[in-house]
Amino acid sequence: MQKNKTNNITYGSMMIALFAILLGLTFYIPFVGFITAFIVLLPIAWYSANFERKQAILVTTISIIISFIIGNIGGLIFGLLIAPLGFIIGDSIRGNKSKLYMLMASTIFILFMTAVQYIISILVLNINVLEQFLENIEIYYERLGNMMSSVGQLPENYDAMVNKSLQLIEAIMPTYFIGGAFILAFIYLSINLPLLKKLKLDVPKFSKFVDFRLPKAVLWYYLIVSVITLIVSFEIGTFGYLLFINAALILRTLLFLQGVSLIHYYFYVRGWPKWAAILATFLAVPLYTFTIILGVLDLGFNLRGFLKDRYKK
Question: Measuring CA to CA, how many Å separate 219 from each of 2, 227, 247, 296, 301?
Answer without folding.
Answer: 56, 12, 12, 7, 11
